[in-house]
Protein backbone atom coordinates (compact mmCIF):
# COMPACT_ATOMS: atom_id res chain seq x y z
CA UNK A 1 0.00 0.00 0.00
CA UNK A 2 2.73 2.57 0.71
CA UNK A 3 4.04 2.20 -2.84
CA UNK A 4 0.54 2.79 -4.19
CA UNK A 5 0.23 5.92 -2.06
CA UNK A 6 3.53 7.20 -3.43
CA UNK A 7 2.43 6.47 -6.98
CA UNK A 8 -0.88 8.29 -6.44
CA UNK A 9 1.09 11.29 -5.19
CA UNK A 10 3.35 11.02 -8.25
CA UNK A 11 0.28 11.05 -10.49
CA UNK A 12 -1.08 14.13 -8.75
CA UNK A 13 2.25 15.93 -9.02
CA UNK A 14 2.52 15.19 -12.75
CA UNK A 15 -0.12 17.86 -13.36
CA UNK A 16 2.14 20.50 -11.77
CA UNK A 17 5.05 22.38 -13.26
CA UNK A 18 7.59 20.75 -10.91
CA UNK A 19 9.27 18.64 -13.57
CA UNK A 20 10.08 14.93 -13.56
CA UNK A 21 13.36 15.22 -11.65
CA UNK A 22 11.78 17.18 -8.76
CA UNK A 23 8.81 14.79 -8.64
CA UNK A 24 11.18 11.80 -8.46
CA UNK A 25 13.04 13.49 -5.58
CA UNK A 26 9.78 14.08 -3.69
CA UNK A 27 8.69 10.46 -4.18
CA UNK A 28 12.11 9.20 -3.03
CA UNK A 29 11.76 11.22 0.19
CA UNK A 30 8.23 9.90 0.80
CA UNK A 31 9.29 6.28 0.26
CA UNK A 32 12.32 6.70 2.53
CA UNK A 33 10.11 8.13 5.29
CA UNK A 34 7.77 5.14 4.93
CA UNK A 35 10.71 2.73 5.13
CA UNK A 36 11.92 4.51 8.25
CA UNK A 37 8.55 3.83 9.88
CA UNK A 38 8.90 0.09 9.31
CA UNK A 39 7.75 -0.51 5.75
CA UNK A 40 9.51 -3.62 4.47
CA UNK A 41 10.38 -4.00 0.81
CA UNK A 42 8.60 -6.87 -0.92
CA UNK A 43 5.63 -7.27 1.42
CA UNK A 44 2.44 -8.04 -0.46
CA UNK A 45 0.01 -5.24 -1.24
CA UNK A 46 -2.79 -6.89 0.71
CA UNK A 47 -3.15 -9.35 3.56
CA UNK A 48 -6.59 -10.98 3.70
CA UNK A 49 -7.81 -12.61 6.90
CA UNK A 50 -10.51 -15.07 5.89
CA UNK A 51 -13.49 -16.08 8.05
CA UNK A 52 -12.06 -19.63 8.29
CA UNK A 53 -9.02 -18.32 10.16
CA UNK A 54 -6.64 -18.56 7.22
CA UNK A 55 -4.59 -15.65 5.97
CA UNK A 56 -3.66 -15.13 2.34
CA UNK A 57 -1.22 -12.67 0.84
CA UNK A 58 -2.05 -10.87 -2.41
CA UNK A 59 0.23 -8.90 -4.71
CA UNK A 60 -1.52 -6.81 -7.36
CA UNK A 61 0.16 -6.23 -10.71
CA UNK A 62 -0.84 -4.81 -14.04
CA UNK A 63 -1.17 -7.32 -16.89
CA UNK A 64 2.51 -6.79 -17.73
CA UNK A 65 3.86 -6.00 -14.25
CA UNK A 66 6.62 -8.14 -12.75
CA UNK A 67 7.62 -8.88 -9.19
CA UNK A 68 10.76 -7.39 -7.74
CA UNK A 69 13.33 -9.72 -6.20
CA UNK A 70 12.14 -8.62 -2.75
CA UNK A 71 8.56 -9.53 -3.69
CA UNK A 72 9.67 -12.96 -4.92
CA UNK A 73 11.54 -13.52 -1.65
CA UNK A 74 8.46 -12.51 0.34
CA UNK A 75 6.33 -14.89 -1.73
CA UNK A 76 8.72 -17.75 -0.96
CA UNK A 77 8.67 -16.88 2.75
CA UNK A 78 4.86 -16.94 2.75
CA UNK A 79 4.75 -20.32 1.03
CA UNK A 80 7.47 -21.73 3.32
CA UNK A 81 5.37 -20.58 6.28
CA UNK A 82 2.36 -22.51 5.01
CA UNK A 83 0.47 -19.48 3.70
CA UNK A 84 -1.08 -18.91 0.30
CA UNK A 85 0.28 -16.13 -1.90
CA UNK A 86 -1.41 -14.86 -5.04
CA UNK A 87 -0.18 -12.66 -7.84
CA UNK A 88 -3.34 -10.99 -9.13
CA UNK A 89 -3.74 -9.04 -12.35
CA UNK A 90 -7.41 -7.99 -12.25
CA UNK A 91 -10.24 -7.24 -9.88
CA UNK A 92 -12.14 -10.18 -11.33
CA UNK A 93 -9.26 -12.53 -10.54
CA UNK A 94 -9.11 -11.19 -6.97
CA UNK A 95 -12.87 -11.66 -6.51
CA UNK A 96 -12.68 -15.23 -7.79
CA UNK A 97 -9.91 -16.09 -5.31
CA UNK A 98 -11.85 -14.62 -2.39
CA UNK A 99 -15.14 -16.23 -3.41
CA UNK A 100 -13.41 -19.61 -3.82
CA UNK A 101 -11.83 -19.27 -0.38
CA UNK A 102 -15.06 -18.38 1.42
CA UNK A 103 -17.19 -20.88 -0.49
CA UNK A 104 -19.41 -18.58 -2.51
Structural summary, described in words:
The structure is a single chain. The protein has 104 residues and is α+β, with helices and mostly antiparallel strands. 51% of the residues lie in helices and 14% in strands. It has helices at residues 2-13, 20-36, 69-80, 91-102, and strands spanning 46-49, 55-60, 84-88. A three-stranded mixed beta sheet has the order 1-2-3, sandwiched between helices. Strand 1 and strand 2 form a beta hairpin. Helix 1 (2-13) packs antiparallel against helix 2.
What are the key terms here?
elongated; 51% helix; 104 residues; 3 strands; alpha+beta; 14% strand
Overall shape: it is: elongated
Oligomer category: single chain
Averaging pLDDT over every residue, what do you get? Answer: 85
Helical residues, percent: 40-55%
Strand content: 5-15%
Question: Tally the helices: what do you get?
Answer: 4
Residue windows where pLDDT falls under 50 for at least 5 positions: none
Order of helices and strands: HHEEHEH
Neighbour order of strands in the largest sheet: 1-2-3
Count of individual beta strands: 3
Largest sheet: 3 strands, mixed
Classification by helices and strands: alpha+beta
* Rg (CA only): 16 Å
Q: What is the distance, rounded to the nearest whole angstrom, between the alpha carbons of the first and last residues?
A: 27 Å
How would you concisely characterize the structure shown here?
Helices cover 51% and strands 14% of the residues. It has helices at 2-13, 20-36, 69-80, 91-102; strands at residues 46-49, 55-60, 84-88.
